[in-house]
Design goal:
Length: 130
């Protein structure tokens, strides 16, 4: 396993209305991977699904379809107890500073960085690889 996080065909559809409602496809077939030591920025226009992807990875929302693998395990199958005892000890959100994002001198990466996957011990140390 070379990746820390793998997102495969992630989709989130919100529905509105009881009868004759409509669907909002907030995230549509998103796939990417994050290797140990990498810093990730989600970049996109307003309303493109960046926040929704972050909430899905943090399991604050349940995906409509797709998989989210962390250290090779599909977190979409984790119980609330397992999320609290294992996953949330290793993963956290680092939110964007809204004041920094409006400054023209701020770099593009800093403007759109929403979250950063961080582990307390690197994958390499845990797996005994150097």
């Amino acid at each position: 396993m070379s990746e820390l996080l793998r997102v495969e065909h992630l989709t989130k559809i919100f529905t509105s209305g009881l009868i004759g409602g409509y669907e909002i496809r907030a995230v549509d077939d998103v796939s990417f991977e994050v290797k140990p030591g990498e810093i990730v920025s989600l970049v996109g226009e307003s309303g493109s699904g960046k926040t929704t992807v972050g909430k899905l990875i943090l399991r604050l929302l349940t995906p409509t379809s797709g998989r989210i693998l962390f250290e090779g395990e599909d977190i979409t199958t984790f119980s609330k107890k397992r999320l609290k005892s294992d996953y949330y000890r290793k993963v956290q959100a680092v939110f964007q500073d809204p004041f920094a994002s409006s400054t023209r001198s701020t770099s593009l990466t800093a403007r759109f960085t929403w979250f950063l996957i961080r582990t307390f011990r690197s994958w390499t140390e845990r797996s005994g690889r150097s």
